[in-house]
Amino acid sequence: MYKLKKISFVLFLILLFVGCSDDFLNVASREEIEAEDSSENYTPDEFVIGVYGSFTDFTYAFSWLGVTEIISDNADKGSSPSDTGTDKHLLDNLEFSSTTPSIESVWTKWYKTIGRATYAIEYTENFEMSDEQLRSRLIGEAKFLRAVCYFYLVRYFGDVPIQEQDLTQRAPQEEVYQYIIADLESAAEVLPEKGVYAEEDLGRATRGAALSILSKVYLQRENWQQALDYANQVIESGQYSLADNYEVIWREEGENGPGSIFEIQARGESTAHGIQQYSTTQGARGPSGWGWGFNTPTQDLVDAYDSEGDEIRKDATIIFAGETLWDGREVSPSIENPRYNEKAYSSANAGAGDGDKNMRIMRYAEVLLIKAEAANELGQTGEAQSALNQVRDRVDLDRVTTGDQNELREAIWKERRLELAFEHDRWFDLLRTGQAAEVMQGHGKNFVEGKHELFPIPEEQLRKTPQMEQNPNY
Amino acid sequence: MIAKDIFAKGLLALCLSLFLVTAAYGQHSVKGVVNDQAGEPLPGVNIQVKGTTQGTSTNAQGAYSLTVESESDTLIFSFIGFQRQEVPIQGRQEINITMTPQAIEAGEELVVVGYGTQEQVDLTGSIKRVQSEELNKQPALTATEALQGKVSGVNIIKNDAPGGTPTVIMRGLGTALGGRNPLYIVDGVPVDDINNIAPSDIESIDFLKDAASASIYGLRAANGVIIVTTKQGTEGAAQFEADTYVGYNSVLNKVNMADGPEYVTYFNEENAAVDGFQLNQNQQYDTDWFDELLNQGRFINSKLSVSGGSENINYFFSYNLNAEEGLLDNQKFWRQTLRNNNNYRLFDGFLTLDQNLSISFSRENPMPFGAFNTAYRQSPLVPTFYPNGRYGQPFVNETTGEVTYEGAADETIGRLNTHGNPLTAIDFNNEESNAITLQGNLAADFNLTDYLTFTTRLGATRFYGDTRAFSPLRQQWISGDPTRTVAQYQANKEANPGVTDWADNTLFVTDTETFRWNWDNYLNFSKSFDDHNVDITAGISSEKTGVGKRFRGRAYDIPEQEQYWNLDLATDQYDKIVEHTNFTPNTLLSYFGRVQYNYDRRYYISGTLRRDGSSQFANTEDYWELFPSVGLGWTISNEEFMGENEAISFLKLRASWGRLGNQNVPFNSTVVSTDPGSASQNYVFGPAQALRFGASVGSPARDISWEIVEEWNLGADIEFVDSRLTSTIDVYQKTTKNLILLVNPLPNSQFEGDYFDQGAEVVNQGLELSLNWSDNVSEDFSYNVGTSFSYNKNEITEVETGFEGLTGGSLGNGQITKRLEEGQPLGAWWMYEAVGVWQDEMEIANNPSIGGALPGHLRYNDVNEDGVIDERDKKFFGSYVPNYNYGINIGANYKQFDVSLDAFGVAGNKVYDGLSNTRFGGENIREETFTNRWTGPNSTSEHPGANRDAIASDYYLKDGSYLRINNITLGYSLQNIVNHLNRVRFYISAQNPFMITDYPGFTPELVGNGSPYGTAGIELNAYPNTRSLLLGVNIDFQ
């Protein structure tokens, strides 16, 4: 028994040693700096900048061309016949499917951008900062960018999941639109006007930008009155006017000009930073060329300009083989394709990896055209004509005088095509206005009604969330 | 001769003096003869006077004589394989003894169960013990290597590279990304591997296969537990053992590549399809790259051990040297180990101390296995060296069609392919790593009463490792093209100051130091009350691993001579890179208990409970988890109703359930992505468009906990015909819950980077069967036949929504071959199904095809019949892990000869011929590929033509089953040649002499990086299986 007592004592000592067991297990990290010791602090603005930065991804330089212009009657795939650009031929010929990489790429990119925006919003909300005005502005900027992405998504895919709510179920379009409108309205409330921002903040989302997108959202929903009201708010803000010369809008000197409402910023000097290779993918291809030669204007678009006698915008939009560009560059007559997109042409930075080209998302001219279209639908013919003719006046075209609602509508639609060609809006317009089937079939493409109005949900997504149903006929 | 004489004389003098000394004090002499049961004399039997170190052994006639101090002394007779006898002298002068063989009844075989031992017959779980004799039948660097095919349910995949470590998978793959290695316990000390232990130092290895057995090791036991017990000395005079073997090895499955003329034909067909240039039929060179690259490997292994002991102290000391040279030039490995194990019995047995210490030194000069890949791919038309001594490279004069780097000014010099000269990979590789492992433990058993023991054990392992790699960058660059000159390099170097690409050379060094310790304390209570037998163990274990640091450094432009390879001696033209890391240690704290009870050795019940805490989970402070298990057993043959059953001598049924953990899991950390240049986190603002740096969150910091395994086991042990036929059968179901996956985030989620999460369940179900037959036919002839068979089915039974679709098995050319999906095995193949070959353009135009299809390309099945060949048409094709493993081991002894034969096979798996598939054009092909190729419309619809795509498809997926003769050994023993020399055995052995397989590459045993979603099962850079022939000798003397 004595021995047992001794042993009990030994065991007691051991228990004493291991008694503070959690202390023994709580080993201090030596390899990675633990969060509480981290001296690296990120400001909310850094996460907001990260959301803007998302728009400079390569997706916007290649996939984006495919799903907005190449797919439409404005552009052909271009490049060499053997170079498909992965899937641009499928988009050009309306033969895309749920496995088409460009569609998956934009779907994913928009959701990742939405994710960055949501993270930035939450981070900003919880961040200790004294400047409440800055806090709400940053949140407003992130909400604006989030709404832009959802607006792309809902127009292309119809019912789509709202990331912040449920990743596996597609929310009805109506809900998605309400979500977009809520974000934009709240952004419009807090964002400063273009003129109020400090100079170094030029390029951030403004109240005008939020209102413009709101007006475009209502136009999409054929809520003419709201579309008109918001367009008028932008016009009456006095922040914007049409640039005198259409030709310079897409040149370096035209960046953030008087008509600029929102554009993706890019800089050419080292360290260059812009949409990666935006100018390269669309640069002229072949000997003496400077790019890959994708997204080439169609003869149909040339004809459209010619039918209006619209030389100014035709020349500003299209590079013709053999022409001498405004900056003196001679384009060889033997380059691979007859035409290229001039709006993507960068004089200083033609083939550089990081383009210096600001991509215009919303211009004052489009606001005027939205106003014209909404007013026309509301029977306010005079308002409509006046807005439309402001845009035509700049490019020396005759004023539209017709009072016929249908004729005026056609004229406004055509004006949109000519004014905004290669500004990544054509396919949306064709679908929105219900012209897609007729126009595309007329253009020799097999547009299937009841199918091609929406893109297929990408296969990768469906495989992982099978509850999500595919769009019809894919 | 002179030296020998001196030695003999010295020995004689020593013996004489010993005799004189003993005679001087002797008061009583005893002599006699020791026989076995058949009346034959037994030489070499140890005879010791109890309580002294005094003793002798029998001579060739079995006779002995010795002098003792007192007539009342007791003699101890011992001999391996026979029962030890203690005989009091009681005044006798002649004592003749008959030794009885040790009854090899199963009932007396002990197995190690973790914190204790148990008799095999009392087990309720599934534990397989392998003894030293079995282990050392086959030469091996690491003990597990020698056990391939010998333990059912344990899949051992060999790696024949010098210093290579075998992969051990017990009862199927249960984890995709966590640690896959079993836990090793060496003499009570948990370690990660047993590479530092010479197989000849091992007494036994116990495989704890089922969860109920392994759960005493809790959170690290999910991949099974392997308990290694090293040798100890036994009471008696010093026993010396010396073993040496030497051997050669070469490639087992040589791959026949196309020769020069065949290559020309193939190349021209391939190029014609894309309107490329054509090669001349007449070429200067016809190189067999494998002949140039491969040497005969060789190896030597020597060991010397001495052991013995007295009543209170036993000792064992050994030295082992293993040296190998591989198939490639300068590919070397050697290891030396020293071991000293002592046991002390103190205070009349109240305290026993066990002390083990081992030191292992190893050095390795590894060579890149990529050389096998390059040798396979490089054209035979390229010379090893040009006549001017420069390395051959695949330059070709496209104008003349001659494979040469020379040509006239207006001729085009191109390349046949993108690969280099395989010899340069070897010649410019200069790596060396050294390791020292110190491992030891000290255990004290306090025998408090005859039924209560307290044990405390302290174990520690210290590891020092250093590596260095020297790359002569300038020579490498120059060797890449025979027209390059030193002057060009120099010019580039001067034009790019500080740019390390143009440094003359670089040296990379790593120093690593780690330490781990464990301290176990436990009490054991073992007592029988009538027919009730109770055994209880309870204790505490604490452990700290991963204490240590690593230093890594790189410098450029150091002196060329090896003696000056110091980072310090580098020029200051280039920045040095220095990394220093202190590892975050891992602590473990565990409380464990085990209760075993049986009634009359008929009915058994046992249970264990372990509570484990691990610092791995410090981030959540959720340290603790419970690991219970229960086992039941029924020994039917001990029931009275079985009576004296003639046919069945032993029959036991077992059932168990247990729970295990895997703490070796990957962790997430929140990564905020930032970038100092142009990246999509950054943006520009303002009229000057100033670059502003932003940030984004890549992946979530999702908390991860251990993988949990739950396993059922049902088993039976049956012995027939006087235990000559023994068999064990087990069935199990092992479920890994919350399997950790690297989740590729949903496209519509906010996460941009992959992250780890627990999202799947994997079930391994299997059957294990072993049958052994042994018979002593006569005095002179005995034999045994053992077979083992195991079947395992692996299936992912559940995947959380959104986690499907983890892909892997990258071929390195953008193609992937594996995908995770519910209902499929872990690491399942997933690719296009090849259905014939396109014969002409018409056929392609009229059927769904993949982009870029040409006649002669493989045609893929449009599985979903939507007219498009895309990802949705990919199919699952099983797994690289075999479903069936089987082994056959035959041994026989006839008089002085012994022979053994072991075979091992697997079936039910597929392996991927990545070497043939991943071609970019211009690579060489196997002769078989050349012969079978499509050559034009209707030539064949099975094999593609010379111009083919590099898309992954089941065409390249081959049956991975094989049957290999592992070992054929013939031995001849001489007994008792002279006094003290008990036995000399000579043997000759062929290792892996044959393999039967349909696989056309070097080896179907493709471990790759071991990860089910990595390169496991894909042949790209595998080291070939080797066959070897060796000669050896064992000498036992006293």
Overall description:
Chain B: Residues 121-225 form the TonB-dependent receptor plug domain. Chain B: This is TonB-dependent receptor. The complex is a heterodimer of chains A (474) and B (1038). By secondary structure, chain A is mainly alpha-helical. Among the domains of chain A are: 42-191, Serine Threonine Protein Phosphatase 5, Tetratricopeptide repeat (Alpha Horseshoe); 275-357, no CATH class. Helix content of chain A is 49%, strand content 5%. Chain A has 19 helices and six strands. Chain A has helices spanning 2-19, 21-25, 44-54, 63-70, 88-92, 101-126, 132-157, 173-190, 207-220, 224-236, 278-282, 299-308, 311-317, 364-377, 381-394, 405-420, 426-432, 436-442, 459-464, and strands at 75-78, 260-264, 294-297, 318-320, 339-341, 359-363. Chain A has a two-stranded antiparallel sheet with strand order 1-3. In chain A, strands 2-6 form a two-stranded antiparallel sheet. Chain B has 1038 residues and is mainly β. Among the domains of chain B are: 2-98, Immunoglobulin-like, CATH 2.60.40.1120; 106-238, TonB-dependent receptor, plug domain (Ferric Hydroxamate Uptake Protein, Chain A, domain 1). In chain B, the strands form 13 sheets. Chain B has a 22-stranded antiparallel barrel. In chain B, strands 10-15-16-13-14 form a five-stranded mixed sheet. Residues 1-26 of chain B have low confidence and may be disordered. Chains A and B meet through α1, α2, α3, α6 and α19 of A and β29, β34, β35 and β36 of B.
Mean residue pLDDT of chain A: 91
Query: Quaternary arrangement of the chains shown?
Result: heterodimer
- The CATH C-level name of one domain in chain A is Mainly Alpha
Identify the overall geometry of chain B: globular
Keywords (chain B): Cell outer membrane, Membrane, Receptor, Signal, TonB box, Transmembrane, Transmembrane beta strand, Transport
InterPro entries (chain B): Beta-barrel_TonB, Beta-barrel_TonB_sf, CarboxyPept-like_regulatory, Plug_dom, Plug_dom_sf, TonB-dep_OMP_SusC/RagA, TonB-dep_OMP_SusC/RagA_CS, TonB-dep_rcpt-like
Protein name (chain B): TonB-dependent receptor
Pfam family, one (chain B): TonB_dep_Rec_b-barrel
